Amino acid sequence: MKLDAWKQAFFSERMPACSLKGHWVSFRLVDMAGNGKAYGGLPFSVHDSSGRQYVGKLNGEGFARLQDFYCGPVVLMLDDLYSGTEEPYYQLRTRRTYKLPITELQIRAERTFFGSADGKRVEGGAAYQEADGFYQVEVSDLVRHSAHLPRPASSALRPKRHALKMMADLGFGPPQPSLVGIVLFPNKHTVLEVRPLRALRPILSTEDGFCALNLYQLALFAALSYCDFGQAPVEKPLDEVRFPLDPSVGNLFAEQLSVYHEAWRIDPKQSHRFYPIYEDIPYSQRFEILPFDPVLYPQNRPERNEEQEHPARLHFFDDEKFGTDTQAFITHHDQIILISVRGTVSRADVLRDADAHQVSFDDGVGKAHGGFYQAYRAMRDFVLQYLDQFHVGQRIVICGHSLGGAIALLLAEGLRRAQDAHYNILLYTYGAPRAADSEFTAGASSLVHHRIVNHNDPVPSVPAPWMNTTAKLWIPGAITLFSNPLPGGLLFAAGLVRVGGNPYRHHGEQYHFMPITLPDGSHSSVLWKPGCESLQEAGCNRALQLQGDMPDRDNVLRQLFQADQHFMTTSYIPAAWATLRRWQQTLESEGSLVTQREFELLDRAFEDMREQLRAKRRELALRRPANDRSHEPTDALNAEIDRLHTSRERLASLRWRRLQARDVYGSHASSAHLQASLKRWFRHRENRQPAQFTSVPPPSQDEQVRVQTLDIDSVV
């Protein structure tokens, strides 16, 4: 390309650069405290206007000086790849797929820290005064491949990209397909303040034991599964992807936590702020959203059409192929792989919920709910392909709400039984219905499953143990019932009643939210286990005369009027938060799991329930005909009264149980970084509740009136 006439005085066709030499440049890399020691010894390269390359290493203070190069600006790069064996960097650089081009600069930046708790920069840092030029730069400014790095934070002191583009247009600097490097101007000393590569990571316990930390954190992630992934463009991206939608799965992990922002929104209409407990970690140890770089990864190239890989396809499952509309997301770091499965939203979900016909669980033993099993099979390969690429021994933590909890159970058991995989599974579910029969439940007894249930949530009551429901029968039967009662009733009953086979059973260890009203009129709940806490557990279970494995509760129609007890943002998340705060306070005060005051409040509720049952028993006795010898209704009421008495005694035993740090924080109880994470969490006023009895935050007016989907099984 011919040079314009005005350039001819300075440039020639052979060498478009000034022939004059003798100029100098100096520069220094510093952290946010103005210290350059973190970058001492780093190799660098500088390209002058002739295209000539100069290499060297920064001194112990992160300083370097070059002299006698060709006149004009120069381009600085620090692109040398990391060659060590330190984990997790070595594993990320050498893994089978999506090997990351981790540089020495990146590792140094991951070992620096922010000067403020919120990670925000201040203009004019500690090294500002020493420089002729001062820039606040990112690692991505100085390396060639940056798709795996966070997006640059806004700053008025960012390097000007137009200078780099001008030099590239003139043919200056290193040959490259994209604009890379920082332009340094001659005869000046420039200070580059490198933004720390730190990220926020929600902390999760990897221990088998139940803890309040996981109860709360996984409730948030179970709710997040209802959001979209949020990638733009959604399909067939060309050169880059973004995640502008807030809230969304991609936005949380790729856009907010990766740049050290404390995100809290997991529902578009959420008003109350529920912050996860975050820890400050090196960027490479965050929950990863895989990079999209068609230059570096052939599987990302658009010409692959339907086989093109991108973050949405790798991390997000939204099934349409099999018509199940199952939705889930998966992500990971070096210790945990997290999977969250969505509950009922669409019409397809509702129809699947209703299909309670039992089918063989081919990946294990027993039989499963037909609709839930179909959804599990739809997403099974998606999860296995991800694990095949990125599982290197991490604990697999799975969570799900409602229908998502049922699917999560089948997925967890299927993964546990996967041949030669040796997956270590930890499962938390919220308001999940029964998913399989007693044979499945017995066969999955070694699967660690903590099952959370709200007292008046109707969904865990279904399907009933006696049901073997086929939607093809009971739905037409229910419709016919109103026009032709006799055949319609027979068809309806044929669809509901199990003929042969084993009864439905719940799996896992149940934790029960019992509602209480505090003295000031606010509401809260106490978390306890329906099973006995005392040494007489076996005897208590016999005394309970359990029918099925759920405590008897209000009839279904009444429960439907309390359907808000099933939803995450208005019920499970507030109750989980209140439990975490109560247990934190109990741990600090060295009190018991259930205080005397809480026991008194619950005892009052038990007494009210007992009195209602006694009144019902008296009513039935007055209505009984003189010649009626049946005592079944009265016997059932007597048994329920006895169960309430036993439950009261079981709850009373919790007044003497003391909490340990592991009950609250699990594997993080002895972590050196726990207190820093809690300090960050308590900075938010929403988490500073001084009351002795932490109340459940009331839902906003929008949340109260918002229509939410309820599983059709609850109607059945």
Q: Would you give an account of this structure?
A:
The chain has two domains: 21-196, no CATH class; 202-465 and 503-620 and 637-714, 3-Layer(aba) Sandwich (Rossmann fold). 32% of the residues lie in helices and 16% in strands. The chain is built from 20 helices and 22 strands. The strands form six sheets. An eight-stranded mixed beta sheet has the order 11-12-13-16-17-19-21-22, sandwiched between helices. A hairpin with a 3-residue loop joins β12 and β13. The longest helix is centred in the C-terminal third of the chain and has 28 residues, at 596-623. Residues 5-17, 469-499, 532-562 and 703-716 have low confidence and may be disordered.
Quick summary:
The chain is of the alpha/beta class and 716 residues long.
CATH architecture of the largest domain: 3-Layer(aba) Sandwich
Q: Describe the oligomeric state of these chains in a short phrase.
A: single chain
Number of helices: 20
What is the gyration radius calculated from CA atoms?
Answer: 31 Å
Biggest sheet character: 8 strands, mixed
Amino-to-carboxy terminus distance: 77 Å
What are the main properties of this structure?
716 residues, alpha/beta, Rossmann fold, 2 domains, 20 helices, elongated, disordered C terminus
Q: Secondary-structure blueprint of this entry?
A:
Blueprint: E1 23-30, E2 43-47, E3 53-57, E4 63-69, E5 74-77, H1 89-94, H2 104-110, E6 133-137, H3 161-169, E7 182-184, E8 189-194, E9 198-202, H4 212-224, H5 249-256, E10 278-282, H6 311-315, E11 316-318, E12 327-332, E13 336-341, H7 347-354, E14 358-360, E15 367-369, H8 370-390, E16 395-401, H9 403-416, E17 425-430, E18 436-437, H10 438-443, E19 448-454, H11 471-483, H12 485-496, E20 504-505, E21 509-517, E22 523-528, H13 537-544, H14 556-560, H15 568-589, H16 596-623, H17 632-653, H18 661-665, H19 674-682, H20 701-705
Parallel strand pairs: 1-8, 6-8, 13-16, 16-17, 17-19, 19-21
Antiparallel strand pairs: 1-4, 2-3, 2-5, 5-7, 9-10, 11-12, 12-13, 14-15, 18-20, 21-22
